[in-house]
Amino acid sequence: MKDYLATLIEYAREHKCSDIHLCTDIPPVFRKNGEIFTSDFAFSKSLVEDVIYSMLNDKQLSGIERIEDIDLCYQLPTGERQRVNIYHERGELCAAIRILNDTIPTFEELGLPPVFETLAKEPRGLILVTGPTGSGKSTTLAAMIDHINMNNKYHIMTAEDPIEYMHTHKQSIVHQREIGVDVKSFADSLRGALREDPDVILVGEMRDLETIAAAVTAAETGHLVLSTLHTTGAANTIDRIIDAFPPHSQSQIRTQLAGVLKGVVTQQLIPLADGSGRCAAFEILIGTDGILNLIRENKCHQINSALQTGGREGMCTLNNSLAQLANSGRITRQAAFEKTSNRNDLLQFLK
User: Which of 73, 318, 319, 324 could staple 162 via S-S, CB 3.0–4.6 A?
Assistant: First the structure.
């Protein structure tokens, strides 16, 4: 079974696919440059089930029997790592396998704007990387952690579900904790980290109120905290954090955010015009005095206007980034329109 799985993964890597989907009623499905296609690999219901079971340990098998979704990292004997989610659909087992890079890419390889290096130099505060599923948030954060690791003598701690990119000790020391293996939850990992002498804390996802509150508290106590949210747009991200709290606590969290926020980056992956891959478009919000004052005074609806005039500080709107990519010919105009939430605004920037 593992030979069959290894063949699928090797095929995906050779053809630069980002994901593999295993279902019991169709051959393996691959995703490349954002689009899916069905393969002609041999399959059967029993084969798919056996392949999925071959990735599980006893604890995970028990979870499957309780009809739980299972997150894990599957590593080939050659060292390549894949993030896997196993779930049930109409009573059958399915798996979504994300192909991970063999190495951690640099800022230059990812095409990240210079402001990312500025953010990575922050000694404390909160930095958020947001975007839809599959937009490259984990890869961007891994590149930021690796940059900090190479340039600072810090203690870096991560909490991930599961661990995707393996960091080695460089100038810094890096300790990576996996949810469900090394610690029970993101919130527990944050509470523990505050007693473990960290300088930088990476939280894989701020997925609940308890984790959000713990991340903000960690940033307040002098640590640099990096995390992700599944939001689109900087202003939407701020609103999502505040709305996670009960009404009587929202004034307090606005004040706390205004004291720690260093930046919010929203990213989208878009197919290149020549079909050779994908590139990222960014919306970048920097925690300037003006932006933080808008958050403090509950004027988040004015953030988008501030983004448009904040170019000198490294800020840009998603539409501005999409237009730059389209005007340079890297992506098509149609691809830009598919990613924008405001078509008329995008038209103003397009040639």
Answer: 73
- Quote the CA–CA distance of 331 and 279 in Å, as a whole number: 8
Amino acid (one-letter) located at 191:
R
> Distance between CA atoms of 251 and 283, rounded to whole angstroms?
26
User: Counting Cβ atoms within 10 Å, is residue 192 exposed (0-12), middle (13-18) or buried (19+)?
Assistant: middle
Residue range 94-129, pLDDT digits in tens: 999 999 988 999 999 999 999 999 999 999 999 999
Residue 306 and residue 298 in contact, taking contact as beta carbons nearer than 8 Å: no
Residue 90 has a CB neighbour count (10 Å cut-off) of 8
pLDDT of 46-79, one tens digit each?
A: 999 999 999 999 999 999 999 999 999 999 988 8
CB of 306 closer than 8 Å to CB of 292: no
Does residue 242 share a domain with residue 145?
yes
Residue 41 belongs to a domain with what CATH number? Answer: 3.30.450.90
The CA distance from 214 to 206, in Å, is 9
- The boundaries of the domain holding residue 57 are 2-99
Say whether both 52 and 158 belong to one domain: no
Instruction: Give 187-217 pLDDT, tens digit per residue.
Output: 999 999 999 999 999 999 998 999 999 999 9
Average pLDDT, integer, range 168-195: 94
The total of structural domains in the chain comes to: 2
